[in-house]
Amino acid sequence: MATGASNADLAVVLVDARKGVITQTRRHSHILSLLGIRHVVLAVNKMDLVGFDGGRFAAVTAEYLTLAGQLGISQVRCIPVVAPDGDNIAVASTRMPWYTGPTVTAYLESVDVAGDISGRPFRLPVQWVNRPHAEFRGFSGRIASGAISSGETVTVQPSGRRTHVARILTPVGERDHAAAGESVTLTLSDEIDVSRGDVLTAGAAPLVSDQLAAHLAWFDDDAMVPGRRYMLKCGTASTGAVITTVKHRIEIDTMAQESATTLNANQIGYVHLSLDRALVFEAYRDSREMGSFILVDPISHRTAAAGMTELSLRRATNVHWQRLAVDKSVRARLKQQRPCVLWFTGLSGAGKSTLANLVDRRLAEFGRHAALLDGDNLRHGINRDLGFSSSERMENVRRVAEIAALFVDAGMIALVALISPFRSEREMARHRVEAGEFIEIHVATPLAECERRDPKGLYRKARAGELPGFTGIDDPYEAPQAPEITIDTSELTSETACERIIRYLQEHHYL
User: Fold this and answer.
1) Taking every annotated instance into account, which residue ranges of this chain make up the domain APS kinase (predicted)?
2) Residues at the annotated binding site?
3) 310 with 372, same domain?
């Protein structure tokens, strides 16, 4: 519903005259409010089942108008209908003489919903870099708001570089001027870097940030968990994103803001997001095109949520990446080695720590500089404040991934022994380093064997109900789909498995 309504200027809300305003009505109306839709037709249906009672229509109307007022929906037209019979749909009903207003179709044909998007600052999200040959380079897209003329100064966001419009090309030929809603190709007076997802702007500057506050309408059957990674798509731009905080959830029946740590399917909340890179945004109330986004699950590719940007969290605007004189390549050259992450993942008791210890010792014998990050050890220090909820496990993986990336940047080999049960979090860790620097090692020892070993007595406690949420028993473990190395320690000795990993490192020129 939210996806379909995102480009609408008016919505028809259908309610049953017998039931009146129900939870679904409130949820849909709240989404309409978040989407900035201010024109609503309340079609009170099944009037025949309440005897065409004008009093019942008035009661439903009053209830909805109260809700609309709370949500800031300013223009509501209430129409009693019998949809199967066509009463007040296209022809005025003779069975409800007490209603003298327009039919649904008459109102839709007469209502003025036009907004003045041409009067807002110029925004052109670049959809395509048009370069048919070496002599031409244009930037194509649909003007989201404002207007532009040849010779006018524009700024490329998020880079902030300024230039001038040289030519405006449209499907019907070259023009001197173009406005909101038109599809154009602009050529610029200077050879500057512009890519798909960038935005050409003029007038008041948009928001450029990697930290956002937004309302989310959650769609996915899998609950939202802070710390889990998603792909954020806004207009023509996309980047990785993490929901860092759920500020509150909207209780649909009362419109109250409730404390929450997650959102389930069909729930609406207010969240903070952290992005992998800065994107160009507007507040949704100012621009639907620049203020709306979706979140996509990177594993299932399902659309998980629709978002409406509220504001930029200013932290990112004051934090800049510092260029260092000594970089990873220099440090790796000094150590005479190729840095990488060896990420051991598997069930508790699979043999991750044992195997990582052996590999660490063999790397030392080769004279390589390595560091072992063991999950249990880290929970005595940097992760001592974290528990074992889904969100805390994700934060545990995120911190370890950041530390491992720092070791790689120092020219070292980082060994990580961590259950890390979720594929999305392991993919996040992979993307913290460059291509070829992440080696996923699935210690694929079967659950039955891990439970037989049970070196820490954790499986016994989990089976007894003393350790809820234990991975492999109560909580799932998402096995890697394409790990670089797979080891089953129920079939191989630890020493043999270690040598297999060393051989892989030698064959792929890490040693």
Assistant:
1) 338-488
2) 346-353
3) no
110, 134, 166 - which closes a domain = 110
Nearest CA to 354 among 448, 495, 479?
A: 495
Domain boundary among 78, 93, 110: 110
**Choice between 2 and 278, residue whose per-residue pLDDT is larger:** 278
Residue 115 pLDDT: 60
- pLDDT (tens digit, 9 = 90+) per residue, 62-102? 999 999 998 888 889 999 999 999 999 999 999 999 999 99
CA 408 centroid distance within chain: 27
Q: Which residues are known binding-site members for ATP?
A: 346-353
Instruction: Kindly state whether residues 374 and 497 are assigned to the same domain.
Output: yes
> Does 387 lie in the same domain as 492?
yes
280-311 burial, b at 16+ Cβ within 10 Å, e below that, comes to bbbbbebbbbbbbbbbbbbeeeebbbbbbbbe
What's the pTM? 0.64
User: pLDDT (tens digit, 9 = 90+) per residue, 184-241?
Assistant: 999 999 989 999 999 999 988 888 888 899 999 898 988 888 888 899 999 889 999 9
Active site residue 93: no
Q: Nearest-5° angle of CA 504, CA 507, CA 508?
A: 85
**From 420, 424, 490, 494, active-site residue:** 420
Q: Are 372 and 428 in a shared domain?
A: yes
